[in-house]
Amino acid sequence: MWTHTVKQVKTEEQIAAEQAWYGSEKVWLVHKDGFSLATVVKTEPGSLPEGKLKVRLEHDGTILDVDEDDIEKANPPSYDRSEDLASLLYLNESSVMHSLRQRYGGNLIHTYAGPNMVVINPLSTPSMYSEKVMHMFKGCRREDSAPHIYAVAQSAYRNLLTTRQDQSIVLLGKSGTGKTTNCQHLVQYLVSIAGSTGKIFSAEKWQAVYTILEAFGNSSTSMNTNASRFSHIVSLDFDQTGQVASASIQTMLLEKLRVSRRPEAESTFNVFYHMMAGADSTLRTELHFNHLAENSAFGILPQSKPEDKQRASQQFTKLQAAMKVLGISTEEQKALWLVLGAIYHLGAAGATKDGDEAGRRQFARHEWAQKAAYLLGCTLEELSSAIFKHQAKGLQHSTSFRGGPDDAGQGDGSGSKVTALECLEAMASGLYSELFTLVISLINRALKSSQHSLCSLLIVDTPGFQNPRLAQQQRGATFEELCHNYTQERLQTLFHERTFVQELERYKEENIELALDDIESSTSLSVAAIDQASAQAMVRTLSRTDEARGLLWLMEEEAVQPGGSEETMLERLFSYYGTAQGENKGANLLLKGEKPLLFLLGHSHGTDWVEYNAQGWLSHAKHNPAAQNAATLLQDSQKKNISGLFMGRAGGATVLSGSIAGLEGSSQLALRRATSMRKTFTTGVAAVKKRSLCIQVKLQVDALIDMVRRSRVHFVHCLLPKAEAVGGGGEPRVTHSESTDSGLMTLDVGLLRAQLRGSKLLDALRIYRQGYPDHLVFSQFRRRFDVLAPHLTKKHGRQYIVTDEKRAVEELLDSLDLEKSSYHMGLSRVFFRAGTLPRLEEQRDIQTRRNISLFQAACRGYLARQAFKKRKIQDLAIRCIQKNIKKNRGVKGWPWWKLFTNVRPLIEVQLTEEQIRGKDDEIQQLKQKLDKVEKERNEMRLNSDRLESRITEMSSELADERNTGESATQLLETETSERLRLEKDMKDLQTRFDSMSKQMESMEMEVMEARLIRASELNGEMEDDDSGGEWRLKYERAIREIEFTKKRLQQEFDDKLEVEQQNKRQLERRISDLQADHEESQRNLQLLKKKAQRLTAELQDTKLHLEGQQSRNHDLEKKQRKFDSELSAVQEEVQRERIQREKLSREKDMLTGEVFSIRQQLEDKDLEVCAVNLKLDQLDAEMEDLNSQESKDEASLSKVKKQLRDMEAKVKDQEEELDEQAGAIQMLEQTKLRLEMEMERLRHTHTKEVENKDDEVEEIRQSCNKKLKQMELQLEEEYDEKQKVLKERRELESKLFSAQDKVRSGDVETEKRLRKDLKRTKALLVDAQIMLDHIKNNAPSKREIAQLKNQLEESEFTCAAAVKARKSMEVEIEDLHVQMEDISKAKQSLEEQLSRVQREKNDLQSRMEEDQEDLNDLMKKHKSAVSQSAQNLAQISDLQAQLEDALKEKQEVQEKLQALQSQLEFQEQSMVEKSLVSRQEAKIRELETKLEFEKTQVKRLESLVARLKENLEKLTEERDQREGSEIREKEQNKRLQRQIRDVKEELGELAKKEAEASRKKHELEMDIESLEAANQSLQADLKLAFKRIGDLQAAIEDEMESDDNEDLINSLQDMVTKYQKRKNRNPGDSDTDSELEDRVDGVKSWLSKSKGSAKNISDDGSLKSSSPPARRRYYDRSDDEEAEDEKEEGGVSSSRYKYNLKDSDGEDRPSESAT
Question: Which pTM does this prediction carry?
């Protein structure tokens, strides 16, 4: 089943066949019957017309000349059964259909089409849907599995688990393509594979669900004997573990009118036939089915064929069993059968026609109506009233806003009187709608669960495209079929949006250029013709407008319009969307039919034209109260089982606006789905139009699309193989003339081509092949696939924080060695070609498995070590227990122990009983508390559940109210805007009416004047005959001229008309020619466009093939590189083996030499043994000689015995010493081995530590170098900034000094000039005083005096302003000095810190150099120690060999001593010569010397071991020192980093201060400029004052004889008093106004001389001049305000400067004093 995953090696025959295929150009010849395989025949250039080709058909060898447009390239035979259509070499319609046909012929009905799935409905029941097949797909990726409907479910389930996002599977296709069957397979797979907690969702339960749905919602149609007549969504909610937590079904668009009215040759819902055929006798009696009616108004009649009855009876038994599985009780089932029986009896009762029995509406057969009323639990009168009464008042349009008598009058006036049969049909459809909703509620009750769910998977199943012409029927399609086709169109639009629009928008957002063909628009034109709303949809108006709107909106408008009909509705629809009959269908998707009320609508991009019959469609837009009364009738039923069911359902929000059923559920996801659907019905236009029957269709589909759009969608395209109807059980409907085998696996090529073109599968495959269908965000891709590049992870570390995700992804992709054309980097995500990401996923899985295996090995090793450690602890515990048992055995017989063991339990018993009693009391208390807490918990749980349910209800109600309020607000706004527009139009019309009335009045006045003139003329004629004759002649002449002019104009008009008609005819001929040319050009353009598309497609296929070859070459290059690396590794291994062999041969030669030397030594030893044997023979001879001696000396014998005993004692001592030495030697050997192992371990650890330290030191060195470089750069930048700041400071100081000097010089010059002016003014005043004395009696004029006073005031004001400005400027200069001093101090501190950091940096560098030198010395010492240890090991091995030799000699000596002992024992009995004794003593001494030598060797070894230990201790100490130094270095680095951070912060603060200083400097410069400007203006004012004073002096001289001297004196005296008052109020300004006082003194002396009234002047002589009114107001205000400002500023202006003018030397000297 997964043959595509294993690439089989091609045989030579296959390779030869493929080469032959590529050598001969195979093509598909497209013709009206399908397509045929042909071979292009090569011809000479020019032998055929342009655009023609010569081909040879493969099946009969016929050679034909065909157009290039009829040729499509064919794929090699290896692609005939390709599992993915996107993998075809050449992608065109013929190749796709050929692959589908080949697969379908091999019973392979599933095929991948890129990310989508194509399923061709089989005409026989396949055996590919079993539990075994399900488990074959479990856990598989899409790339590893064959195409199957289970693969789609597995892919969606896998995406749901990995992404935790909602998924949805949408089934598309015509009616009869097996969508519902595939939906069942999807649900069964998901429930079986995912499982559920406690197995509450089993396959048996879901089979029962679909059995009930097929019974109540399916019926037989012209295209399908078991067609679904409703749309439904299966929602599976999954929990955290991936199991099914809960489920629900939502239904919509139920074709409820099918109960009472349906097309010919079609049946009602299946449940009626099942119930009539399968009900037992008891149920038949209860339902009154013992005698069935012969005819029915609803056409519900029992089946006539016995086999159909038997099948229906079996289905009813199956239906009852399914209800039992779902927990539907017998009473509930009985209620369902009662309602169904009532509907049947209502059809049997029928209704009277209009006009009978005085026009009253009533039942035709009351006995059947009585049965229906009995089954429904009501009386016949109640039933009749609910159906037929109050129709005139109640029947009105759904969107009527004014629910009063106006609408009723409109309804009656429209002429659409409702018949009794229509009322009866409305009641039946309403009853069945309520019944179907109840069935869905019962199903959801069995499927719901209280478990927590995380995400959901939706499966959408809707009725397919309906086209009666496809079933060879001549009728027009109904409104219900239009609704189902509209739903499929909307789903196709969603497919187009997800496949094309979103992909292209994503490419545009990510700046990815993709050369694609022009993608055709979606099915929006046909959709708009059905549901397009106008901009005035929310406005309460019933008038027809010219704005385009869809069919549903037109039906709603025409239903309430007076005289509205289907004809006017279609006329308006064609005016908006249609074209004239006979035009091309491709120009528009709406055409008029051949008969009235018929129209054609092009579905599926114009590939499926459906003819609709609009007869009676407006009745669908009108509410019939009988349908609304059905729910009330069921809820008020006298039968408890009926009323209980429907009353319980009425309490919950299970139906949304009477359209969507199955919104039950208390889980979070169910509430979210219900809220989403409610929002669709309560926002915008829906809030106003949701009661409209027509608009409800659009709103239901909107809710469906909105729910699906929130998830990731998987599309399944179901195709119809033939135009034959397929039965519900899957049996084929085969004719007798055609064999079953021959008809099963054949395809209708034309039908298949239309379905492929309508679904736009080829365009989807093309964008899938050419684009980048797989994409991931940078961070997600890096986190998911960084396991494939462990070197990057090792390089950066696990805790590495990625700052640039795009750069990291580029590095990762470079390390993965992917081909450049297989991926593209966007702005925020990386895009991959099809198939690239699955390969990376496979590599990731392999690497993950490898890592997990390593991790498992490490875990197992750790567990084994822990188990061994546990065993060691157990062994120790066992030994401890054994020891305690031995001790217990020792004290077991001790009396005191017996007493202790007897008394101890008695003591514990008492304590234990007390403890038990206490524990029992505690247990009782805890039990009471537990019961209390459990009770409270249960109460709280119940309260919480109740509150949660209440909260959910309130939240849903609140959401509905909020949405309703928003809709009302929108409605109000639209109505307000409409009202304003209408008011504006009314105003315009009013103005136009006024203007027109004025024009009419003026015209009437003109007419009246003309009449008066005519009357006066007539009167004049009557009065004067002569004059009348003249006027009559004039009148006749004017009449003749007018007639002549009329004739002339008529002739000219005729001539012009003839000319215009000729021009019109010419233009019409020209237009017809142009239209023909245009049509021809359009045809040529279409042909060229088609050819260009074909060539572009072939070019893209070639390009993709080239990219595939390049990727294959890239893979081969990778494999070649891998092979080269493996080959080099193998060659290196061979080289190592060769070297090892040479080494072994050399070692063999060495061993051969050693063997030879050992043999030589053995020969030497043999010679020595011979010599020893000879010595033994000599000793034997001597012993014999000694034995032969009979005379023995007793004294010598005793002496020899004594020596022998001494020698024996010495020998024993030597043996003990030798044993001790042997033990010491063994301990030394063990110590040596342990030291060797320790040395080896230390050497390994030391080398590792040295390597790690080297790496760390290198990293530290690099980091320190980087930091030092950064610090140097920062220091350089700071130094440059410091130089800039110092330079700016110097410039600022120079500017300040220059400004200060300038100001001081300017002030000094000004003061000098003012003093001179003051002296001159005094002189002028003295002259004026003299002149005034001279002319006492004559005073100057008041005008000149006022001018003089004003000039004096202005000069004084300018002088005071200049002084004050100089003060403020000096204060600011002083503040600037203070700030500059602060800045300089901060700069100095920063320089000190920088120098300190520089010194620390130098210290750190020197320390690092010292550490490096220490490290080098340590490495040298380590190397020397290693070499020394190697030498010591060699010495130890030599000493060990020497020890072994000594041991051997010791054994030989012991043997010799034993022999000597035996000889001595023999000599004790015989006489021994002294010479023999001396010889033995010499041998003993020799042995003693050897023992001493061995002792010295042992001591030397001990000293060597001690020295080695010291070396090891030194090495460990040096290592510890090195680690300590490294730790100190790290701390030093951290400290330096902190210091650097502090320095940076200080630098930042300093930069802020510098910025503040620069800002203040700029402000001061601006102030200085303003002061300079003020100073210049003051100087100009002073010059003007001096000029005025000169003018005043001249005026005084010229007008000395004036008589106003007294007024001048009075004004000057007033000025002096005012100035004195101000001086008293401001005593602190006396020094400042000294210059003014001098002037006032002059005036005072002049006044005293002139008037002699010095007594009026104050004695202190502080006469002061008054200020002008403006200046006086300024002083009066500024005195108090300046004091308040000084208090508020708190000493900001703490120092002020005052200048006292001293006249002693004639110069002005400033003096500072603090105020």
Answer: 0.60
